[in-house]
Design goal:
Layout (H helix, E strand, L loop, with lengths): L3 H11 L2 E5 L5 E6 H5 L6 E9 L4 E7 L7 E3 L2 E3 L12 H13 L8 E12 L2 E13 L11 E8 H10 L6 H12 L7
């Protein structure tokens, strides 16, 4: 976690306003991002994004993260934000911001919401306490991983991804593990 890009990004991230929600995703109010992630945190809205390509591969990154650093994650993860104009980002807007900021992907089509889940994961005095939506989309263009967001990336066969995440859960973020449960229910892994 000693990367300068990671440290510089932290100030911007801590100034973000996120959406506090109940377990079912019902809006409660606005909170500073840090408040949602300190101690036991407060349940808040989040998204996880998985990009796949026409070859049957999924895009994974070894994420730079304040709590779950240097382990594998699906393509992207973020929070819908409360914007300065007083509106809130939609799930799709947050997804597009995430993909552009983390990968320089600007032209993805057909983003789909597959489902949602709640999870809580704690490390020392930090936590993730989220109602998270999983969004997926196909992308076959060029990518450029933002070095402030991840250490490395790989396109991997989706069946190999499923095998790895089930046999080596310690190597993956908690939201990636929960996302796989939704992918399985949606029959994502049944076709090549």
């Amino acid at each position: 976690m000693g990367d300068d890009n990671f440290a510089g990004r932290e100030d911007l991230v801590n100034s973000q306003i996120i959406l506090e929600v109940r377990d079912g995703g019902e809006f409660v109010g606005y909170i500073p991002k840090e408040e949602g992630h300190t101690g036991e945190g407060r349940r808040h809205l989040a998204i996880a994004v998985l990009i796949y390509n026409s070859k049957g591969q999924v895009l994974l990154q070894r994420r730079k993260h304040k709590i779950f650093d240097n382990i594998w994650d699906i393509t992207g993860a973020t929070h819908p934000l409360h914007k300065e104009d007083g509106t809130d980002e939609t799930l799709e807007e947050a997804t597009r911001r995430c993909l552009e900021g983390e990968w320089d992907i600007r032209d993805i089509k057909d983003i789909k919401i597959l489902g949602n889940f709640n999870y809580f994961a704690k490390y020392e005095n930090m936590c993730e306490n989220e109602h998270c939506y999983l969004l997926i989309g196909e992308y076959n263009g060029d990518i450029d991983l933002n070095s402030g967001m991840g250490y490395e990336y790989k396109w991997t066969d989706k069946f190999k991804f499923l095998e790895d995440i089930k046999s080596q859960t310690q190597n993956f973020t908690p939201w990636a593990i929960k996302s796989v449960e939704i992918l399985e229910k949606a029959s994502f892994f049944t076709n090549r």
